[in-house]
Structures are given as structure tokens and as C-alpha cells.
Amino acid sequence: MKYLIDTNIFIESAYRYYRFDICLGFWEWIKDVASNDKSIRSLDKVKEEIKSIDKVGKDKKTNELSRFIASLDKAFFIDKNTIDKEAITKVANAINKDFYQQASKDAFESGADFFLVALALQDRYTIVTHEKELSPNTTKVKIPNIAKELGVECINISDLLVQKDVQFVLKT
């Protein structure tokens, strides 16, 4: 299997689940994956989103995440310009539903989410995200809803760690 990591995986991990000061092993694993495991990738738009958050956030954690992302192997972040028009059109058609709020459509199209789904569709990636599928009558555009409609699988970071047989060992 191949996996694409969403922006929120990096952000939530840095702020909650795998903070740099308590679970360095997670970040070492990401760094190793970025250099050595071509089955796990992210997108250049994800990197851009994290950089833009860094410009807004002035705290240590935000800067630490931005520095970490900048240190990763450049090949880890796939160029969104490699996505073909067919995949982009399919995602655009999937979000162009009357029941979705226009502001939600615009936000989805302008961020990494749109391109993550398109690349996953094109190259058969599984998307790794913390987003949850919303009910069918939702007015918000979310990765899991659009991915499901297009036959793209989504999992969370814990599922990825299990599938890759990753364990973090406590040092005392």
C-alpha cells in the first residue's frame, strides 16, 4: 500500500499526540520514512500549509514543526503539478454539489485537501488524516466524504502505525 499524509497529521501530532518533547521517536520515524520509504509521502501543498501556519503562529511548537518539515527530504513532498487533469476534474465534480456550502467548497479547493484526494485517486494512495467522515447530508466538504465517493481509502495515523508495524519504546 501507498500512503499520503494530510497536514492535520503533522499539526495534531506536534501539538497533541506525539509532541516533540515527549515522543521524539515518532518524528525520527517520520524523518526515516521521508528518506527511505517511498510508500509514504505527503504533498508540497501540505508543506506550504505548515509554512503558512508558522507565519501566523509565534509559539515554539509551531516553529519547531515548521523547522522539522523543512528538514525532511524534498522527495517526500510530491509536487501537486504531477496530478493529471482527469483526477482534478473528478475531485472538482465530487465537491460541486449544491448541498455543500460555497465557503466550504472554496476552502477545500484552495488547500492541500483537494490535491491530496486527486493524487490519491490518480496513484492509488490511501490518505492518512484525522478528519472524520461526516453524515451524507453535511454541508461541509471533508476529505473522507469526497474520498469515499471516489473510492479512495482514508485511515488515521494510528492505523498507519499498526499497518507499518511501528512501535515507540519508552526509555527511562
Percent helix, as a range, is 55-70%
Find the structural class using helix and strand composition: alpha/beta
Low-confidence segments: none
- Give the total of domains: 1
| Secondary structure tally: strands | 5
Helical segment count: 9
CATH superfamily: 5'-nuclease
Please state how the strands of the largest beta sheet are arranged side by side: 3-2-1-4-5
Looking at how many chains there are and whether they match, the oligomeric state comes to single chain
Report the CATH architecture.
Answer: 3-Layer(aba) Sandwich
CATH fold name, please?
Rossmann fold
Instruction: Give a quick account of the main beta sheet: strands, pairing sense, barrel closure.
Output: 5 strands, parallel
Summarize this structure as a short list of keywords or feature phrases.
172 residues; alpha/beta; Rossmann fold; 5-stranded parallel sheet
Structural notes for this entry:
The chain has 172 residues and is an alpha/beta fold. It is built from nine helices and five strands; from the N terminus they run βααβααβαααβαβα. The chain has one domain: Rossmann fold (3-Layer(aba) Sandwich), CATH 3.40.50. A five-stranded parallel beta sheet has the order 3-2-1-4-5. Helix 3 (44-56) runs antiparallel to helix 4, helix 5 (85-95) crosses helix 7 and helix 7 (112-123) packs parallel to helix 8 (143-150). The longest helix has 13 residues, at 24-36. The chain is globular and about 55 Å long.
Protein topology:
Blueprint: E1 3-5, H1 7-17, H2 24-36, E2 40-43, H3 44-56, H4 60-71, E3 77-78, H5 85-95, H6 102-110, H7 112-123, E4 126-128, H8 143-150, E5 154-155, H9 157-163
Parallel strand pairs: 1-2, 1-4, 2-3, 4-5
Helix pairs in contact: 3-4, 5-7, 7-8
